[in-house]
From TrEMBL:
One of the record's GO molecular function terms: lactate racemase activity
Domain LarA-like N-terminal stretches: 9-209
Residue span(s) of domain Lactate racemase C-terminal: 282-422
The protein's name: Nickel-dependent lactate racemase
Species: Dendrosporobacter quercicolus
Superkingdom assignment: Bacteria
NCBIfam families: Ni_dep_LarA
Pfam families: Lar_N, LarA_C
């Protein structure tokens, strides 16, 4: 018997036809029950902070409070909904508007427009406050805070460090390097120097040349994840007073945590696991994953999350078919493109990455390294020739991709299907 699935592709969908007996599992997020409004969830978290006094009791009149917020690439975190309630808490503690500094944690991202700042603050706050963008290259606004045990020099935003209280806000999702976003990530990379960010992210590589990515640096891993641990040490140097983080599902806030920057984040990570961590019984010969459509597949660079999650469900040497329309091409910057197009072997790419590490280069390298370990086929609008050096096949339709795989490996392949591959993290039972 044949089954049909509609998988998102850009603004449209593609139909997957597959024999029912081949399907191991459809890997989807776990059901979420919305029994409280977003405002109720936010107020509950603020009223019941983890290992901390409520924010209103931490602050004192006359103190300068730095509130670190996401940048525009994280607008899904619903800042316009929760920031007014953060300000309300500060007002209860006697903090005036003039003593609140909103700092956008750009990390290494571009600066933002006034319109984007207003979108982040939301309609209730946009006319009361302005936003200061962190600039990782502005040495005059960076202060040295110490060095981690991993050797990372920690340079952080001087204005943030001059505040009497530092509040970190944002959202928690799986992150391919840090394990999870949120929490400590709003210190490093959020308000750190470029040098600090690159030193931290370079821990993503195995110390031994030729061994590629460090096996413990991956989505959903914390206690043995070097990047996560290094970020925690950097956060400890910054001494944040309080965090507020949300977890989202289906476009709305599904949970929230507040309190101590480490233990509250621990609880938030468990919320993410409960929604987007999906247990699988075994890895598959074939994984068919959609990034989830636009904007998650706007370019190849954005599709890295889907690739990383699909790898977790694929047998060594198995096949991944990833739907990523990528109408804007490879994406990222020139470094991504050079890493993919400018070298003939994975080892050459690894050497170039070790010599001059950047996140963009790592993303390009990871695609190529994946194609060396697995058969990687993209259903994409990208031109087929563009990824030939990377050993990545590009086809225009899902049917064409399946025909290629079945002709080479036979049609009786145990298969996982990931309709929202950028979000769901398969976890082997």
């Amino acid at each position: 018997m044949e089954k049909e699935f509609l998988l998102k592709y850009g603004q449209a969908e593609m139909t997957l036809h597959i024999a029912a007996e081949n399907i191991l599992q459809v890997i989807e997020s776990n059901p979420v029950v919305f029994d409280k409004t977003e405002t109720e969830l936010i107020r509950d978290a603020l009223a019941n902070p983890i290992d901390s006094l409520p924010l209103s009791k931490l602050v004192r009149p006359g103190q300068k409070v730095g509130v670190v917020i996401p940048d525009i690439t994280r607008v899904w975190q619903r800042t316009g909904v929760f920031l007014p309630l953060i300000v309300e808490e500060l007002e209860k503690g006697g903090i005036r508007d003039d003593d609140i500094l909103f700092i956008s944690a750009l990390g290494t991202h571009r600066s933002q427009t006034t319109a984007e700042h207003r979108l982040l603050l939301g309609p209730q706050l946009a006319d009361r406050f302005t936003v200061t963008d962190h600039d990782c290259h502005d040495r005059s606004n960076l202060v040295y805070c110490g060095q981690t045990s991993f050797g990372t020099p920690v340079w952080l935003n001087k204005q943030a460090m001059a505040c009497d209280q530092l509040v970190l806000t944002g959202g928690i999702v799986y992150h391919f390097l840090a394990g999870w976003s949120g929490g400590k990530k709003y210190i490093l990379p959020g308000i750190a120097s470029y040098e600090t960010v690159m030193a931290n992210h370079a821990l993503s590589l195995n110390p031994a040349r030729g061994q590629g990515p460090h096996p413990e640096v991956r989505s959903g891993n914390d206690n043995t994840n070097l990047i996560h641990l290094d970020m925690l040490e950097a956060a400890a140097l910054a001494k944040p007073s309080f965090i507020f983080n949300v977890v989202t599902a289906q476009g709305r806030i599904a949970g929230a945590v507040a309190g101590h920057y480490q233990t509250a984040h621990d609880q938030g990570r468990r919320l993410v696991d409960a929604i987007d961590g999906v247990t699988i019984r075994e890895k598959a010969d074939l994984v068919i994953a959609s990034a989830g459509g636009s904007p998650k597949d706007v370019n190849l660079y954005q599709s890295i999350k889907t690739l990383i999650n699909a790898r977790e469900a694929t047998k060594p040497g198995g096949t991944m078919i990833i739907l990523t329309e990528s109408p804007e091409g490879l994406g990222g910057n020139a470094e991504v493109q050079d890493m993919i197009l400018g070298y003939d072997t994975v080892l050459e790419r690894e050497d170039a990455l070790r010599a001059d590490y950047s996140i963009s280069k790592y993303v390009g390298y990871y695609f190529c390294e994946s194609a060396a370990k697995f058969e990687l086929i993209l259903v994409s609008s990208l031109e087929p020739e563009i990824l030939q050096k990377a050993n990545i096949k590009i086809v225009k339709t899902l049917d064409e991709a399946l025909a290629l795989v079945y002709a080479k490996r036979g049609s009786a392949l145990k298969t996982h299907i990931m309709p929202h591959g950028a979000n769901t993290l398969p976890r082997l039972a």
